[in-house]
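Reviewers of the previous submission asked for a worked example of the structure-prediction workflow described in the proposal, so we include one complete record here. The input consisted solely of the amino acid sequence. No template or homolog information was supplied to the procedure at any stage.
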Amino acid sequence: MSRKTNSPVQHLEVPRARLNEVYYPGDNPAEPLLAGVSFTVRAGEVLTVIAPASVNAALVNLIAGLDDPSEGSIEIEGQDLGSMSPQQRAWLRREKLGVVMPSGNLVGDLTVAENIALVYELSGISHQQALSRAGVALANVRASKIGDHHPRQIGIFNQQKVAITRAGLGGAKLILAFDPDLELDAAEGEQILQLLRKQVEKGSSCLLFSERESLTNFADRSLKIQSAAVDAGEQDDD
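From that input alone, the workflow returned the following structure tokens.
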């Protein structure tokens, strides 16, 4: 589902994320959690990573620049995380990445609208203008009625809707999302997946982390990590 352009050098487009031979230690010193993992996230696609929960959590922390690999490198839009300062990584998370945790990961003391407005405010937009834009964003996902509610009042399904809406704002190019089915029934989980797909169609890419192999049917591509290393038949060619 890569986006089409008229450029004769389309194939040279910088990937949204690239992992190069990444190693990461686990609880057992003799067996790293990640061993030689390499893959690329292309512009305008959903890539599903099928792996144990501990591996998925480690990958999110690494790609978000919260942890460092023991070996290998990670690039976000061509920028090597290993060469970036903590301040530069924080900027990257704010400007380029959106993270959707199973619980939604919303700020409990803020209303739903304020949670979304916060993304705009961090980009320098005034509070009132940010709230106005948040109202539009909520209307687009048919969630205007919950704008003045706090996260604890709206349930997991709506929390995830809000989190995905928030993740795609502010120019975020890569959304890191955990499988919604862990917390939701089948119908709600399908709605959340389709909302993720709509964000990708607007210009983002999505890395979807799950333990369910059935999610490969939803993705444009999938990658299976069975243990400490990626199975050779599942790795990207590039």
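Strands lie at 17-24, 34-41, 46-50, 71-76, 79-80, 97-100, 174-178, 205-210, 221-224. We consider this example representative of the routine output the project will generate in years two and three.
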